[in-house]
Amino acid sequence: MAAIPTYHYPQQGKLTVLGAGESGVGTAILAQKKGFDVWVSDSGKIAERYKKELQETGIRYEEGKHSEQEIISSDLVVKSPGIPQNVPIVQRLKAVGIPVIAEIEFAAQYTDARLICITGSNGKSTTTMLTWHLLNHAGLNVGLAGNIGRSFALQVAREQYDYYVLELSSFMLDDMEHFRANVAVLLNITPDHLDRYDYKLENYVDSKFRIIRNQQPEDLFIYCADDPVTVQGLEKHHPIAKMLPFSIVKHVEPGAYLTSNNEIVINIPHQDTFTMDINELSLQGKHNVYNNMASGLVAKAQELRNATMKESMGSFKNIPHRLEFVACIAGVNYINDSKATNVNAVWYALESLAPQVVLIMGGVDKGNDYEMLRDLVRTKVRAIVCIGKDNSRIYDSLEEDAQIIVNSSSMRDAVEIASHLAQKGDTVLLSPACASFDWFKNFEDRGEQFKEAVMDL
């Protein structure tokens, strides 16, 4: 079991939760169980299922506003990661000295489970699910939480796990001070959410490296030695945990690397060496070699048997909305990659597919730089079909490289246009590179609408 870090927050009194989504409601239930006087405030409308859960547990709440006087009377505030730190109510709380923390940090106080934490601009959901799959398949008592699945706080309140695999976004990491990851995994860093970081990559890099904050020498830091931004970040942020790099271009030991025979090799001191041909992996594509290396290093560090690891890495099924095969219609494959909300994720998707691709992309631009897509668009993309209200930056960046680039009026319209542009043997790929909030509730809604439109062809 992991040692519980020292936290310096009130352990009783009034606790306010800002935001009544998955993490907020889970936090409220855990806080109530720990004896806090709990109150939940959401500036928007609370979803019916969460409202019902609050009512059933007798937790007070408000929706459609933040009552400042009530919030300011709190001893501790736990805020949703979706609420920026610079909003007035959060600034006011900090000005009067009331601690404002994240759900993950709050819940971590109340478990002695080993915390395996995964972040990165791309691949973190897949790697988190794969890591959980590896540990669960090996018989470990492991929970899955963070930016995926049921809230960490709710599971701490109602379950008793020995391990947690946590997917952590930069927004979650921003709100953590004393949290300690026993195993920290940093997959990669590419420009994303720069609108939240003053459009400065270095601020985003600092946010990602918060995952190693408070680690101890006996902890592990797993990172990609091929990612230049991560490697450069190591010059500023100095891990004290044991470092395990992974690479597909060079031999690293200890760590994970790829041989000239296309075998993954995982070497950890005092453990049997693990090898596996990449053609045996259930997840194909270069980016998934990296994801398997990261998950494999975590699994090996927990002393999993090689045979169990190989079986799990060969049987894993990817998460919905991440390169999810939908259907083959008239010889055209339709793939849902709605979770690709940044340019680098689209690059990975295109890199893993054969030509020709009809690419459906667009939405709420987060300061994207589409330049990295130009070569792949030129060599692999037959046409681009744009979704979303304003795609002027996609046109400006890719118009010279795309054979065809057109707008659409809805997801259904986009799929119909793509089906006419595609030829037998092509792939229609939804990989937006953008947030979804102009036309859709979230990326899941966008992906579901894509799948429905495909099935109606």
UniProtKB/TrEMBL annotation:
Query: Which InterPro entries does the record match to this protein?
Result: Mur-like_cat_sf (IPR036565), Mur_ligase_C (IPR004101), Mur_ligase_C_dom_sf (IPR036615), Mur_ligase_cen (IPR013221), MurD (IPR005762)
Q: What is its EC number?
A: 6.3.2.9
Q: Which residues bind ATP?
A: 120-126
Q: Where is the Mur ligase central domain?
A: 118-298
Question: Does the record carry GTP-binding as a key word?
Answer: no
Where is the major localization of this protein?
cytoplasm
Q: Which reaction does it catalyse?
A: UDP-N-acetyl-alpha-D-muramoyl-L-alanine + D-glutamate + ATP = UDP-N-acetyl-alpha-D-muramoyl-L-alanyl-D-glutamate + ADP + phosphate + H(+)
Q: In which pathway does it act?
A: Cell wall biogenesis; peptidoglycan biosynthesis
> What GO MF terms are annotated?
ligase activity
Which residue range or ranges hold the Mur ligase C-terminal domain? Answer: 321-434
Location relative to the cell: Cytoplasm
On the tree of life, the source organism's domain of life is Bacteria
Coiled-coil stretches are none
Instruction: Provide this UniProt record's keywords sorted from A to Z.
Output: ATP-binding, Cell cycle, Cell division, Cell shape, Cell wall biogenesis/degradation, Cytoplasm, Ligase, Nucleotide-binding, Peptidoglycan synthesis
The entry assigns this protein to a family as follows:
Belongs to the MurCDEF family.
What this protein is reported to do is described as: Cell wall formation. Catalyzes the addition of glutamate to the nucleotide precursor UDP-N-acetylmuramoyl-L-alanine (UMA).
What this protein is called in its record is UDP-N-acetylmuramoylalanine--D-glutamate ligase
- Protein's organism: Parapedobacter defluvii
Corresponding gene?
A: murD
